[in-house]
Amino acid sequence: MNLTFSPEEQAFREEVRRFLADALPSDIRERVRLGRHLRADDHIRWQNILSEQGWLAANWPVEHGGPGWGPVQRHIFDEECAAAHAPTVVPFGVNMVAPVIMKFGSVEQQQHYLPRILNNQDWWCQGYSEPGAGSDLAGLSTRAVLDGDHYIVNGQKTWTTLGQHANMMFCLVRTDPHAKKQAGISFLLIDMQTPGITVRPIITLDGAHEVNEVFLDNVRVPVENRVGEEGQGWTCAKFLLTHERTGIAGLGHAKQALRHLKSLASRMQHRGNPLLSLPSFRQRVVKAELELMALEVTNLRVIAAARDGGVPGAESSLLKVRGSELRQEISELTRRALGPAALPFFPEFLHGDASLDDEYAQGAAASAQYFNRRKLSIYGGANEIQKSIVAKTILGM
Amino acid sequence: MDFALTDEQRMLEETLTRLVADQVTPEQRRAMLEAPAQGASPLWRTFAELGLLHMPFSEDVGGLGGDGTDVMIIMQALGRCLVPEAYLFGLVMPGQLLALCANPAQQERWLAPLLEGEHQLALAWQEHTARYDAFDILTQASQHDGQWQLNGRKDVVMNLGNAAATLVTAQLPNGKLGAFIVTANTQGVTSHTYRTMDNQPAGDLTLNSVTLPLENCLSEDAGDALAEVLALGRAALCAEAIGAMETACDQTLAYLKERKQFGLPLATFQSLQHRMVDMHLHLEQSRSMAILAATSLSLPADERDYKIAAAKAYCGESARFIAEQAIQLHGGMGMTEECYVAHYAKHLVMFDHYLGDSDYHLETVSEKLDAA
């Protein structure tokens, strides 16, 4: 066994690093570094640059315009992007709906949607969760009734991330209320301009407008916008959940956050010494460092298995649980490291374009991010759901 | 980056796993522990025939040149069945110190028979006053009239009673660390043997004006070699703990599926499912750390010691967590001598006391944190 990257992989890392140093606009890098929210235009500008480089669709096969990377290269790319303060690619189009369209979509759907995703022409959002269907996603009740060559869709979706910018939504709807709950679900692609759609912001406890409610009131969706057969929606949803989950630990983000924490705690002073030398604080940083080391090797084990043809299954649940816990712990320590400077809250700076004295700018996002990161153990299947998945699929309980 | 075993390594793992599963059942293990120690056991002779005793040593001292992964495979298999043989403490660690610093004549006398299974040795590096520190010791050695004289006390020397000779570390007048070979019948040597909480043979060794001929000195500067041996020992212990954690988890899971309360198997209760998953998460994360340790042995000393300290600290805490949960999930049964998982729990808790505990190793990580 060995844990070292091959010379080719190391050369690839260098190539990515050089590209990021040259191509990432400094204003975007600065916003990410300071933890300020990105504007829609920031995302699009960066994704256009990636697209031009041919690196936007990191998960796609070459025939659809992907770079043809394997799991190891994707891992290196993610890690370098996080280290360089590059924005995370908005995943709903390129990483989520695209693989479903490739796997279950018609040739027409593939020809229409995939190039538009690659060119950033469409901004996709996800219509999965509902007020009554969170962890129990298959209990969703948004109804789609066939009326000639259209479905009439009625219901409500929620936690729709960045839905305020989206022009397209992939949506799970119930087409057969009498079938067993998973069997009655279909997968629809919905144009957000269609009459009857209302998007209403949800402001999260960090003051951010990241998620939305989407109301669907007699929305007419052409039948040709259904992906796969009627009643096959749950299969698409499950495929999407198991597809490419090797990045789920958020390892690159955890590494970057821990580097930032160590540097911050070395600068912050406690009775004339760096905070990092205060034993109780240092101990927690050491523990986080250990957890990161373990998580990195576990992540590499899963990546190597994927590279060698395995399908990461319930291991991704493990990565998700431990990765989210670690990132939450680091965000907690980062907030603590600031001491009283964690108290002032500057929403106009974090979410808007207001400027702020450097004294406060460097740490302005810490408290907000701490609260924002609580989502990590809730979304994408809460950690308790992940544990039940491991209990069932790995342990046979 | 590669986590796959080679064909030879897979074969080693299969052969050894089958052997110990067959030869070290709970009943056989009890009998082995009760049998008086009289030279090599039948199992040890089988180890010798399989080449296991040669595996961890380099080819230039007559070994098979196995690496950290080979040692990991062996230790993990031994840990799964709590095999009561002093593979690490009686063979690997003292043998590796001989391989690193003994001269050819000393190797011929002590290392060659060790590899053939003709005797076992012990390594006496630990002293209560220094806790887990191998270098800040009180035992002294100095030369007088062409002989060495040793004074001091070595504590909790593993495998002491079964060793044909013990390798003893001592502080030299120049401040360097010396390593000596001491036999039990030497005048001034007293040993007091006992078993540890997890049923391994150990003892204390008192050296009262012990006089040794010059050829019993292995090295007058053994510090780096000892650090290397301790690193190997710690990585090996992590691997052994992984094997024991696997079995403790397997047995607990089997118990939850079989034991019924309120008319239902315990495995159907969600709070117990999640507890069992937490044990599994600790095991998998620790396995990653044990792999990290096993693959770090050939790194430069600083980097090696950082990663291995991290692994030992991490595995120490996970081992205790798994042990405590295994007892808890077995309920009252887990408290009994008769319940096999209790023996794994004892070993997993006491694991932290061998070759430095979590506090000791966290300090090593902490000291190097800023540079990392």
UniProtKB/TrEMBL annotation, chain A:
<dbReference type="InterPro" id="IPR046373">
    <property type="entry name" value="Acyl-CoA_Oxase/DH_mid-dom_sf"/>
</dbReference>
<dbReference type="InterPro" id="IPR036250">
    <property type="entry name" value="AcylCo_DH-like_C"/>
</dbReference>
<feature type="domain" description="Acyl-CoA dehydrogenase/oxidase N-terminal">
    <location>
        <begin position="6"/>
        <end position="119"/>
    </location>
</feature>
<dbReference type="GO" id="GO:0005886">
    <property type="term" value="C:plasma membrane"/>
</dbReference>
<dbReference type="Pfam" id="PF02770">
    <property type="entry name" value="Acyl-CoA_dh_M"/>
</dbReference>
<dbReference type="GO" id="GO:0016627">
    <property type="term" value="F:oxidoreductase activity, acting on the CH-CH group of donors"/>
</dbReference>
<dbReference type="InterPro" id="IPR013786">
    <property type="entry name" value="AcylCoA_DH/ox_N"/>
</dbReference>
<dbReference type="Pfam" id="PF00441">
    <property type="entry name" value="Acyl-CoA_dh_1"/>
</dbReference>
<dbReference type="InterPro" id="IPR006091">
    <property type="entry name" value="Acyl-CoA_Oxase/DH_mid-dom"/>
</dbReference>
<keyword id="KW-0274">FAD</keyword>
<dbReference type="InterPro" id="IPR052161">
    <property type="entry name" value="Mycobact_Acyl-CoA_DH"/>
</dbReference>
<keyword id="KW-0285">Flavoprotein</keyword>
<dbReference type="InterPro" id="IPR009075">
    <property type="entry name" value="AcylCo_DH/oxidase_C"/>
</dbReference>
<keyword id="KW-0560">Oxidoreductase</keyword>
<dbReference type="InterPro" id="IPR037069">
    <property type="entry name" value="AcylCoA_DH/ox_N_sf"/>
</dbReference>
<protein>
    <submittedName>
        <fullName>Acyl-CoA dehydrogenase</fullName>
    </submittedName>
</protein>
<comment type="similarity">
    <text>Belongs to the acyl-CoA dehydrogenase family.</text>
</comment>
<dbReference type="Pfam" id="PF02771">
    <property type="entry name" value="Acyl-CoA_dh_N"/>
</dbReference>
<feature type="domain" description="Acyl-CoA oxidase/dehydrogenase middle">
    <location>
        <begin position="125"/>
        <end position="219"/>
    </location>
</feature>
<dbReference type="InterPro" id="IPR009100">
    <property type="entry name" value="AcylCoA_DH/oxidase_NM_dom_sf"/>
</dbReference>
<dbReference type="GO" id="GO:0050660">
    <property type="term" value="F:flavin adenine dinucleotide binding"/>
</dbReference>
<feature type="domain" description="Acyl-CoA dehydrogenase/oxidase C-terminal">
    <location>
        <begin position="231"/>
        <end position="394"/>
    </location>
</feature>
TrEMBL record, chain B:
<dbReference type="Pfam" id="PF02771">
    <property type="entry name" value="Acyl-CoA_dh_N"/>
</dbReference>
<dbReference type="InterPro" id="IPR013786">
    <property type="entry name" value="AcylCoA_DH/ox_N"/>
</dbReference>
<dbReference type="InterPro" id="IPR009100">
    <property type="entry name" value="AcylCoA_DH/oxidase_NM_dom_sf"/>
</dbReference>
<feature type="domain" description="Acyl-CoA dehydrogenase/oxidase C-terminal">
    <location>
        <begin position="228"/>
        <end position="368"/>
    </location>
</feature>
<feature type="domain" description="Acyl-CoA dehydrogenase/oxidase N-terminal">
    <location>
        <begin position="6"/>
        <end position="118"/>
    </location>
</feature>
<dbReference type="GO" id="GO:0003995">
    <property type="term" value="F:acyl-CoA dehydrogenase activity"/>
</dbReference>
<protein>
    <submittedName>
        <fullName>Acyl-CoA dehydrogenase</fullName>
    </submittedName>
</protein>
<dbReference type="InterPro" id="IPR009075">
    <property type="entry name" value="AcylCo_DH/oxidase_C"/>
</dbReference>
<dbReference type="InterPro" id="IPR046373">
    <property type="entry name" value="Acyl-CoA_Oxase/DH_mid-dom_sf"/>
</dbReference>
<dbReference type="InterPro" id="IPR037069">
    <property type="entry name" value="AcylCoA_DH/ox_N_sf"/>
</dbReference>
<keyword id="KW-0285">Flavoprotein</keyword>
<comment type="similarity">
    <text>Belongs to the acyl-CoA dehydrogenase family.</text>
</comment>
<keyword id="KW-0274">FAD</keyword>
<keyword id="KW-0560">Oxidoreductase</keyword>
<dbReference type="InterPro" id="IPR036250">
    <property type="entry name" value="AcylCo_DH-like_C"/>
</dbReference>
<dbReference type="Pfam" id="PF00441">
    <property type="entry name" value="Acyl-CoA_dh_1"/>
</dbReference>
<dbReference type="GO" id="GO:0050660">
    <property type="term" value="F:flavin adenine dinucleotide binding"/>
</dbReference>
